Amino acid sequence: MVQVLQNARALIATRAFSSTSRSFAGQNLTEKIVQKYAVGLPSGKIIKSGDYVSIKPAHCMSHDNSWPVALKFKGLGAKAVKDNRQVVMTLDHDVQNKTEKNLEKYHNIENFAKEQGVDFYPAGRGIGHQIMIEEGYAFPGNLTVASDSHSNTYGGVGALGTPIVRTDAASIWATGQTWWQIPPVAKVELKGRLAKGVTGKDVIVALCGVFNNDEVLNHAIEFTGDHIDELSVDYRLTIANMTTEWGALSGVFPVDDTLINWYKQRLDKLPQPHPRVNAETVQNLIDNKVQADSDAYYSKHLVLDLASLSPYISGPNSVKISNSLADLSAQNLKVNKAYLVSCTNSRLSDIKAAADIVKGHKIAEGVEFYIAAASSNVQKDAEDIGAWKTLLDAGCIPLPAGCGPCIGLGTGLLKEGEIGISATNRNFKGRMGSKDALAYLASPEVVAASAVLGKIGGPEELDGSPVNKSNEILKEVNVIPKPQESSESSATDSTAAATGVEVLEGFPKSIEGELVLCDADNINTDGIYPGKYTYQDDVPREKMAEVCMENYDAEFGSKTNAGDIIISGFNFGTGSSREQAATAILARDMKLVVAGSFGNIFSRNSINNALLTLEIPDLINMLREKYRDSPKELTRRTGWFLNWNVETATVTVRDGKDGEVVLQQKVGELGTNLQEIIVKGGLEGWVKSQL
User: Fold this and answer.
1) Which residue from 280, 287, 303, 41 is spatially nearest to 180, judged by alpha carbons?
2) What range defines the domain where residue 72 resides?
3) Same domain (yes/no): 75, 128
4) Are 304 and 189 within 8 A, CB to CB?
5) Which of 161, 181, 201 is the last residue of a domain?
6) How many domains does the chain have?
7) Does 619 fall in a domain?
8) What are the φ and ψ backbone dihedral angles of 578, each rounded to 5 degrees?
9) Tell me: the pLDDT tens digits for 370-379?
10) Phi, psi at residue 613, to the nearest 5°?
């Protein structure tokens, strides 16, 4: 990864990982699972991080975006889903919306699912990720994708779950396959045992907060640890779910006895014979555990001492900020709204934990505490044990099983000036309501206690006890050098580079424009394209152009012109899987974005929609130095012009269109295969041409 950054590799070119001389190293768990689901490999090919592969995932889930995917699918000229056992559709995001328009969309999705014979779960059945786990679609050792950024959740049950975008989903429906580049893989070691009162949510909030310098950005994560078997499956699901917010593409826990026993218990809950979770599949799981090889290579090794953790809270308005419960409790921050909803922390154990906290209490005056089970099955189980009634008796406000306020839809959104504390996964500015509200993330126990106290606080305060002081979190980061490439491989690479890049007819030999500096790291997809437009499927191009970047900077539209090139910081495009974050930039007639680094989902959406991207960390650092002593501007015209010569794979930046050269360096080569996707207008056009 260091080599990638130093050479300012293009995101749309192959990462600097070679498999030519790594045969001595075994495969990690991620590579093994991908190997199983890769198609079209040469005989004997052992895949490694950095390789581009075609994959045929076990399952592909889509939710409310199923209808836009279906329209793409039809637009490809496809008639029938290639494998209707591969595809799953769930309705979960906007389930409170009873408008004629939304109900028509839901009706269209259901009819399409019936016509194609794919498995369909209606609004109210639950959140798609929970259904994928409950019903055994995401299963230990398999590769399951979804057109949603929280597909990482499946790693909690030992599956490799990773997000795709709508165009990818349509391609899978049509062909059964899509493309994936295996990312660098990081080992995250969870040492020791959790103290009493510390939960899985505290683990991932701490990880996001203390390793907040993009240590795992665009990595696959594999969790290990000497006592990892003591982490419940529900804790694992929570941790895996929020590896998305940590910047990772996946987060996989091992297949161990804890997980196998969980599946044995599932056999009693599911009607048998079940097509995916039955005695035979569980026995096969026992007999054929998928594990990493002892000599597998990991690009990084991160260590977190669980015994050093206390309850932690994320925010405000960023998962990269984590505060101890003790520190925030002392600030007496009044809470207006509390939430126990979403695919992160609305399983039975979470609901029971919250109910145990509020039992015998009432929700504080002036606080609204919203609850929604992860699925109808979870709600029924919570009702059966009395936990649901306990929460209602305390004054909680029930919502249907679904996403709702977590995605900024439906009842209970944050208003200007309010403070919310939530057991969800994201607290991006403006995501759960007003951009002038403050949102914090915490465990179900802390959320419930805060709702009763009327301020951010812990369960012990309900009995008049003070919150214990927090410990210093103990952590380590080790970057592991890559195995050396052979001299033969290096010579081959040098020869290829010397020949120059073939440029296809219809693809520009160079791209040029003035750099417009959006000086921030972690600009998320909500900032690029507001969430309130995401599930409106008929937003015209002009409107998309108008609202582009408005949640980041309301002045962006007035400061930029067609043909400009956005230059931004690190992890640009982090967050949700909405492809409109790329198409909104294209709607402004901007063809290229340059950044220190990109969120992987954004870069995937960019390729699929014909938006070019380049990683040039030196350039953003130079501009930040140039304006270091200037007044802060969110969007700034720089007067610097960038020219990307595709044939020579060289970027030249001048001060003024014909002025002095301030930077010139090689970038990754843009091969003809990816040029062809861009020429065809994106992946959808390319697939259509292939069909």
Assistant:
1) 41
2) 56-181
3) yes
4) yes
5) 181
6) 3
7) yes
8) -60, 120
9) 999 999 999 9
10) -140, 145
